[in-house]
């Protein structure tokens, strides 16, 4: 039988923010899958003992980017990782949005300002500054032209931390239509959700934000589905994706545009979509069976290590 590691972050001393994790782990086990919940940075885990390692909620990775990238390569050297390490590397740097735009995918217009480059902030209209690597709206803020001084300090702070900045027009459509997250799992649409705008005017860039205000189920329009599928089709080298989330907002023309393509550790919002749980379990089982079937014969013939559970396994 295939063995699966479901991977999360170590939240201690706080409780985990991933409400879906224990539910998914139990559902996998109830379906007869041998699944362990593990912390990605637990040095005691024997990754080779798993047929498939599924990244779920490694939510501390964005400020530990190098360590996390090294971990993905380490895991992939000994077993199957979902999503693959190359996908994680590409997606962890939001310069991918510029690549999607260059490939003709409708995206939120973005200018990148690396440390040492001139700010060139917009003269008119409201705009957003945020980091090219980050999550949870960390270091994101919106500005009107009279907030120029604060915006320059914001840029300087990010540059001092080595972060490249993204400068985008503030997309007005988000105030009326919110931001829609289309989630794909095992190659098909799983479900969609909508959340309200996160960036209130005047909120400081280093303030904590509510990441998913007013989250609710959403039925995607044909136009949203089409843009999401174009974004997924534009991922370099057409990798196999176990999971993907495409975040869309309406541009000034009313057409959906990609705000973010999340292929590293998307929150699946299963608590909002309990009917999706069996599809996620089935998707993981199928991926694990495929991974187990492609294990080298010598490896497959080796005896199991005492049938013991992995010492790094936890029950988050
Ligand atoms: N150009 C923009 N116009 C309007 N709102 C924006 C813009 N960019 C970001 N926001 C708001 O800030 C939030 C966070 O931005 P974004 O999703 O790009 O970064 P993130 O840190 O990856 O966030 P998360 O991980 O929570 O999705 C968005 O959900 C949206 O509400
Ligand atoms: Mg986002």
From TrEMBL:
Protein name according to UniProt: Glutathione synthase/RimK-type ligase-like ATP-grasp enzyme
Coiled-coil region: none
Taxonomic source organism: Streptomyces achromogenes
Alphabetical keyword list: ATP-binding, Nucleotide-binding
Domain ATP-grasp: 97-295
